[in-house]
Each structure stands twice: as C-alpha cells, then as structure tokens.
Amino acid sequence: MATTAFDLGNYTAALKEVVQPYIQDNIPKDAKLLQVLKKNDSVQFFNNNFYFGVRTNRHGGVVNLANPTAQLVTGNAPTTRGTVSPKYVTATFDITDVVMKASKNDKGAVEDAMMFQMRTLKSDFAKSLNRQYWSDGVGIVGQAGSVGAGTLSVTYPGGTAPDDTRGDISGWFGPINYDIKPTKYFAPGQIIGIGTAAADLGTVQTVSGGTAQGTLVVTGAPAIAANDSVYIVDADGNAAGTSEIQGIRAALTVGTATTYAGITIASNDVWGAQYMGTAANGALTVADMDTVYMNAVEYAQGSDRYAWFMNKTLYAKYGELMTALRRTVNKTELVSGWSGLAYEAGQGEVGVYLDFDCPDGEAVLLNLDSWTVCEVAPMGFVEDNLRRRSDYITFQKVFSWYTNLACRAPAANGRLLRRTK
Amino acid sequence: MADVRSGLDPKDYRYLRTPDPAFSPERNKAVIDETIREAEKWHEIQRKALLDEEGNRADILSSYAKHTLFDGKNKNLREFLGSQRYNELVGEKVLERVRIADSIGKLKKGTL
Predict the structure, then answer these.
(1) Which 3 state secondary structure label does DSSP give A221?
(2) B chain contacts of residue A183, beta-carbon cutoff 8 Å
(3) E-state strands within A133-186
(4) Looking at the predicted structure, is the pLDDT value of residue B63 above 70?
(5) First to last CA, chain B
(6) Is B95 part of the contact surface with chain A (CB cutoff 8 Å)?
(7) CA separation (Å) from A85 to A53, A99, A134, A405?
(8) 123-162 in A: which are within 8 Å (CB) of B?
(9) Portion 263-302 of A in contact with B at CB < 8 A
C-alpha cells in the first residue's frame, strides 16, 4: 500500500515554531528554584569544570596597634577555588513514522502530537531539575522495602541507613511528615538501578502506592534486597552516584561528607552550613528558625536575599505558629506566581515558601545570593532538525542542559531537620 | 479563659505579643490557604501533564496503528483501550488524536 510520507519539514517547522520556544521559555518558570537563582554569577568554565572563587576566612592583616611605632601585621583574605563539574540533564522524545504518516493533511494532528510531547517534556524536565536542586547529587530517589519477583516496595530514603555512603547520607532520616510520596519521582519507562553502585537494573512498568510505601513493578529481573538504594539511571545503566546536580543537600551537608566543591568543610569556617535538629524529631518552632537564621546571616553580605522553604506540613505549621503567636500573617512574593508568608526576623523581611520538593521534615533557609546556576550554555534542543533514529522508524528530539549548582557560602545558609507538626 | 500559650512550644513563649488591632485568625488562615492553593494549582497542572505521560498517549496511538496495520487485527479504538481508558482520553481532549486513528483506517482501506 503506497502512501505519501508526511513532509518531515512540517514537523521540523512545528518543532521550531511551536515546541522549542514553548519548552525553552517555560521550563524556568516550572522549575521554581531556577527562577530565583542567578546564572553563571562569578563562575568560569574551563577544563570541563565550573570554577568559582571563594573567600574562606577573615583578612589576617586587620589589627590595632599598641602604639604608633608598633609593627603592622600584613595579611590577606585567604581564598580558594570551588569546583563543580557539569551534569548532563536530558529529555528525549520520539515521534514514530506511523504517526507522522497518519497525520498527513491534518496539521492539527501534527500540532496535537507535538503539544503532547511538549507538555510532558516540559513538565518532567522541570520536575527533575527541582528534585535535583534539593538533593545531594548522588541520586537516591527511593529505598527498597519488601521485595518480590519483579516487584519492590519503595519508601522515602533514610528510614534505615541506605546502602550508599556518599553525599549527605547522614542527612537522610526517612519520612518525617510523609509530605513526599515514595513513588513521586518514578515513572513507567524509567530504567532504575538498585543496590550498591546501582548494579542491578530494571525498567519500571508500573508505579503505584500511597503515602508511606509505594510499589514498582519492574522488568529485567534485577536482584533486589531490602533497604537497597534505588536510582534513576541512563540507558547504559550508568549515572548512579555522580551524575546528578549537586544540589542543596550537597552544599549544606550535615554529616559525614568532608568536602563540598572540592573544599574541605572542617578547615574552612565559611564552608559549613548552619543546622539544627539532627538528633531527634521535634516540633517546628520560631525560636529554632531564628537561631538558624541568626547564625546564617552572620556570614551574609548586607544586601543578600533570604528565604525559607518548607514542604506542606511544616508550611502549614508555620502559619499556625504565627496565628498562635497572635501575629498577622502577610503574603509576600518571591517571584511571580510564587507567594509565601512573611517571616519577621529582625533583618528585613524574609519569606517562607512552600516547595513540594523540599525534603520531608526540613525547613531550609537559603541565602539566594550565595547560589549560582552554572551552565555551559542555555538549555535547548541538541539539533535543529528531526533525525531518524538509526535502525528505527522513529524520529527523535533531545532536549539537554549541561549544568550544575554552586554555593559560594554554605555557612550563610541553614537547615532545620526532622521537624514535625 | 484559654491559655494563649496553648499550641506553642515553651521555646516560643517569648515571641507572644499583644496582637495588632487588625489581627484576625480567620484572615491569617485565608492568607495561608491562598498561598497553598497557588502552589497546589501550579503542581496540579504539572501532575495532569505527568498523568498524560503515564498513559503514554502517543504510544497508545502508535500501538493501535500497529494493531490494525501490521498485526492485521480489527478492534476499534474503544475495544483496544478498554472503556475506562477510552473515556479518559475523551475527557481530556487527547481523543482528538483519534483523527490519527481514522487516518490509519483510511490508510488501511487505501482511501487516504
């Protein structure tokens, strides 16, 4: 049966005119943290790494003289260089030749197919970015509970020590308020790596489950043991452990990690974040928020912007605290479309904002001016035109971003952990 | 009279103050709920798009095309998907892409 191929140029044109601009314009709006952080602020890229200067301590040459003839103390402000490497964030979609041919003479169907791919690509790319921004770069997305043939239950990581000691592993405490569903970041079609070094691979077939525990049905018969870490990996089965954006939990680590961005935490005062609450669960209090805030602001520069971020339970709790303290709650806006509650901490107005990807049980104080988004180039499509995948009747587009996150002053940021209602 | 400190951790007692004349618990709740709604609205939009992906709608149509064109079978789209899934597609407008399925039918008959 002879058919006339739908003109590839029509798809290419639709991509360029409809899909690409929509995705590139809207992903930053949907990856919420991306809206509020600067890009490539004092960052250089060379030798396949991002470099940023960091002042690590006070100037050693500041001293009062005992008398006018006393000797001066010559010194300088010690600096060092932080280093993070680009991470390769991608999103790929295929359009089959069957769909393209079937939509001949029906440009509406062409645009519909494109619109579908556009919406899902945009949504999931942004969602992945936001998750990574909150994480520690290791990529543990879940933790195995009970296992069966081709199926595993997953829980929010940390209830039992995960079998990966990298990253902010001592900052994982398991579910606290159950604000993040254990299956939130899983989707059918993903390839997951399970266990030490993500050695066992499977493809997610179905995702289901509730608040405390979810279930993944996987193909590939991976070996699964209880408490195994679960990662999202690439089609080569790699990418676990070192491929994700080194986000907030990497820079503001509370535990055993000894370095961040190549700089030793213990020997540099400005490199350790302010934190409280690791010993036990406890109720969120304004007093604790103020303690973390005051400790952090000591390391800030005068004009720095601050914001608290919380997930659902703690956000509502904060609002209840304000009412219990008989304070009028005022709305404040971080960026267009993202409003929160004002937090009066004596150093200007600081907002409290709801982010559904903020780690469960944590109130995170970010000095927004100490963070920068590092990018090799703005996010975009790999090629202009549709290309047919070799050995398939499928055309493929790849959206990519080579990026990482860097914090120049972790000590000017803070975390309250294990907070409950 | 209820203790005004109820609901507070002792650490927070020192933050109690005489309320502003305009203080209103109801107004506070309205402001809090409004900001939560804004955040949920944004996330609902994303969740619906994610559901679309879980349904793999584009691949549903490709699979249906394969079913009719290459496997030589002849279920209609409703039978192929099942009623629930079919109705979901109708409800979410994606069924406009059934035009593609119609086009596949025309291809099969050689009338396209």
Answers:
(1) coil
(2) none
(3) 140-148, 151-155
(4) no
(5) 81
(6) no
(7) 15, 39, 17, 9
(8) 123-124, 126-127
(9) 283, 285-288
- CA proximity to A10, closest of A110, A101, A125: A110
Distance CA B58, CA B64 (A): 10
pLDDT at B95 over 90: no
The dihedrals phi and psi of A270, each to the nearest 5 degrees, come to -80, 0
ipTM field: 0.77
Positions in chain A whose pLDDT score sits under 70: 1-26, 28-30, 100-116, 118, 336-337, 346-348, 384
DSSP 8-state class, residue B97: G
- Of A51, A136, A123, nearest to A372 by C-alpha is A51
Question: Best residue in B26, B35, B68 to probe A by mutation, most A CBs within 10 Å?
Answer: B35
pLDDT in tens, A378-397: 888 887 677 788 898 888 88
pLDDT band at B105 (very low <50, low <70, confident <90, very high): low
Q: Do A331 and B35 touch (CB under 8 A)?
A: yes
Q: What is the number of CB-based contacts under 8 A between chain A and chain B?
A: 160
Q: Name residue A154's amino acid.
A: V
Query: Using CA atoms, how far apart are residues A201 and A330, in angstroms rounded to an integer?
Result: 49
Rounded to the nearest angstrom, the minimum Cα separation between A201 and chain B is: 20
Q: How far is CA A117 from the centre of its chain?
A: 23
Cα separations (Å) of A164 from A158, A227, A259, B40? 10, 10, 17, 33
Specify whether the CB–CB gap between A177 and A211 falls below 8 A.
no
Other Cβ atoms less than 10 A from the Cβ of A190: the count is 16
Considering only residues A295 and B63, tell me which one the structure prediction assigns the higher pLDDT: A295
Element containing residue A388 per DSSP (H, E): strand A387-388
Could you tell me the pTM of the whole model? 0.79
* Residue B73: both structure tokens together: 């079978």
For residue B4, which residues of chain A lie inside 8 Å, CB to CB? Answer: 326
Partner B contacted by A331 (CB < 8 A): yes
Residue B2's closest chain A neighbor by CA? Answer: A324
- Picking from A122, A123, A206 by the largest number of B CB atoms within 10 A of its own CB, the best residue to mutate is A123
DSSP, residue by residue, A76-128: ---EEEEEE--EEEEEEEEEEHHHHHHTTT-HHHHHHHHHHHHHHHHHHHHHH
d(CA A291, CA A289): 5
In tens, the pLDDT along A228-287 reads: 999 988 888 777 788 999 999 999 999 777 889 999 888 887 889 999 999 999 999 999
Distant-in-sequence contacts of A252-255, Cβ < 8 A, 24+ apart: A252/A168, A252/A364, A252/A407, A252/A410, A252/A413, A252/A414, A252/A415, A253/A136, A253/A167, A253/A168, A253/A170, A253/A171, A254/A168, A254/A170, A254/A171, A254/A278, A254/A415, A254/A417, A255/A168, A255/A169, A255/A170, A255/A171
What is the distance in angstroms between the Cα of B70 and the nearest Cα belonging to chain A? 11
**Which residues have C-beta within 8 Å of that of residue A119, sequence separation ≥ 6?**
B49, B52
pLDDT tens, position by position, A114-124: 666 767 777 78
